[in-house]
Amino acid sequence: MVKYTEVMIRYGELSTKGKNRKDFIGRLAGNVTRVLNDFPEIEIHPRHDRMHIVLNDAPFEEIDKRLKKVFGIQTYSPAIKVPKTLEDIEKTSLELMQATFKDGMTFKVNTKRSDHQFEYDTNQINNMVGDYLFDRMDNLKAEMKHPDLVLRIEVRQDAVYISNQLLHGIGGMPVGTAGKAVMMLSGGIDSPVASYLAMKRGVEIEMVHFFSPPYTTEKALAKAKELTGILANFCGKINFIAVPFAEIQETIKEKIPEGYLMTVQRRFMLQLADRIREQRGGLAIFNGESVGQVASQTLESMVAINDVTTTPVIRPVATMDKTEIIERAEEIGTFDLSIQPFEDCCTIFAPPRPKTKPKLDKAREYEDRLDAEGLIERAMAGINITPIYPNQTFLDDKAQEDADLL
Amino acid sequence: MIYFDNSATTKIDPGVLATYDKVATNIWGNPSSLHKMGDRSHQLLEASRKQIADLLGTKPHEIFFTSGGTESNNTAIKGTAIQKREFGKHIITSSVEHASVANAFNSLENLGYRVTRLPVDKEGRVSVNDLRNAIDSDTTLVSIMGVNNEIGTIQPIEEISDLLENYPTIQFHVDDVQALGKNIWDKVFTPRVDLMSLSAHKFHAPRGIGVLYKKEGKMLSPLHDGGGQEKGLRSGTENLPAIAGMAKAIRLLLDDEAEKANREEAIKAKIVNHIKDKPGIDIFSPLSEGFAPHILCFALEGIRGETLVHTLEDQDIYVSTTSACASKTADEASTLVSMRVEDKIATSAIRLSFDESNTMEEADQFIKVFDKIYDHFAKINHLGEN
Prior knowledge:
The complex is a heterodimer of chains A (406) and B (386).
Chain A (H helix, E strand, L loop, with lengths): L5 E6 L6 H18 L7 E4 L3 E5 L5 H8 L5 E10 L3 H15 L5 E8 L8 H15 L4 E2 L6 E7 L4 E4 L3 E5 L8 E5 L5 H11 L3 E8 L6 H14 L6 E7 L1 H10 L5 H20 L3 E3 L12 H8 L6 E2 L7 H11 L2 H4 L21 H9 L3 H10 L2 E5 L10 H7 L1
Chain B lengths: L1 E2 L10 H13 L9 H21 L6 E4 L2 H15 L6 E5 L4 H12 L3 E5 L9 H7 L4 E7 L11 H8 L6 E5 L9 H4 L6 E5 L10 E5 L25 H15 L2 H19 L5 E3 L11 E6 L4 H10 L2 E2 L5 H4 L6 H5 L4 H4 L2 E5 L6 H22 L5
Parallel strand pairs in B: 1-11, 3-4, 3-5, 5-6, 6-7
Antiparallel strand pairs in B: 2-8, 7-8, 9-10, 10-12
Helix pairs in contact in B: 1-8, 2-8, 3-4, 9-14
């Protein structure tokens, strides 16, 4: 098994310049540090063109899993640092090639040299290492233009760095570079995907989740938190804001005609999300609405609901088909949890025949019958903010006890 | 004390007992309750089911909890017979099954089912040819044990499985109560097996709990109707402390399975090699691939098995006449009789059954004691003279 000593990270979408570029690199370094914070031995050196991670014996396999989920990384390569002797270069090159070469692959050696005092130049190194490999491996074939494997040898002042893998990150922008927003997370399939897409564009999100005990169970809340734990893999930490919603729902149920129950409920949700956004210094509201998917997501409904705010409401999955959203959810790892059947506050008090084309003036008129401000203030007084870290579990918190018993 | 009667029952493992105790004390909600105490129990129930499924190589929803081997066998056999009665009323078993299988077939016979009981050869094994000839268009069930509880014969479950590939509608049940943890699992639990029984107290778990494996898609008529637990197949509030204990016991049992089975086989070999050439000794469990490593049945001619059991008991050594369930009632071993062993030899048989807690020192000790007993009885019965 090859033991990598460093990782070289190349940045994604670096068309940005000047201060923005500095911010990009700073955020990315911060996010990488956060996802690797349980490896204190690791050193992270962000530079203007790439980021250099010194593993100091931390296992690359585990680091690899984490880096795959950090937005803003285009590609990265694990490398081995060796002393500046031809013998060491050859020996390590062979090890690396043997670990990654499969029959039928083509390769080339690509040497760069910033230490021009080194006794061999790039061509000499390319040739000598190439010959060394040919003598010791079967079925090797060199190919200069489009090789399957490139063995990169960088001769620097302090040492030689050898790598032969180019791994792909998930691209996107480092979370935080695009500013902050709130995300309306229900616990279904769509909103986690919308969350992922928001983060992919560099938005730092905080989850707003409505819960209505005793109509919704503790499990529905735990499920939403656990989904947040999965999504936290992409940024290191997400704040989860739980908003009590039962009083509002009960009041609406009592006072509003059935056809508008849903529309008015949604108006309240959006108003609350907007209040929280303001309080938390966010710039936009994200949600998981997809045009036409359910009664509350028709364009008419969006008009009647969106009416409560002028804050940008961004709907990353607005035009995706359900099957596309599901595919995405499976990739992200939220699908299996999303389909756990715990009733959330969107399904309770759902009228049997909600208006799919609610009228804006009616929605306003009905809402005016309520003490909206009082309801919102009481809900705001009851919010509860929890920071959630990658893979934190809430639903299955007895799994360890089970394992101990069994 | 030397306990060589592990096929009758085993001593509960202290760790398993601790799990039983903790669950009974702390996680006592009804798994069907909606509140969080119920949730907690339900979660542990399903975690136990998953662990057992993973260890046995099945899917979790194929594992059903019963009160033990007897119930699993009855559910598999009667459940199939009743479920499939519209399709046929012919059911097949062997003539060397445990009483919980044999008597279930007897009951069904009394209800009008046609029963074929396959004969066995002199090693107690059924022949696949006999089975092939017995199957007809009315056959709905074949039930054959994995390991015989009296002499340890491993039945040809793999060959039977191959044969039954041609009869996909016949439900194939295997009583594997004696077969788990003996490093022969692939031989006695094939992909063709539809139904399979286990009993927890045979592997250091509590009494009153067992497993019925039912392959996905197979249908059984339930024997216990009620609240619909275990997907309606086995109503009754789940015995969670015992279930959790059993899940743990299976994990412990299968840990280092090969090494443990080798150790048991070595004990068996030591005793077999010591006694096999003595005049008047008949060994029914040879050292062979076709026999389980942990069961040794032999007879000392002229001395009733019962007498031998009590004589050994006086020396603090515990063994059985043949199957403990039959020990107090039947005069002779049914497996041995089916093998056409002479009555007077069959009634002289005893069964030693080992497990991983037994040691070579115990085998040495047994040999020492047995030699004395043997010499005494040999003299009385003039064994080895002429």
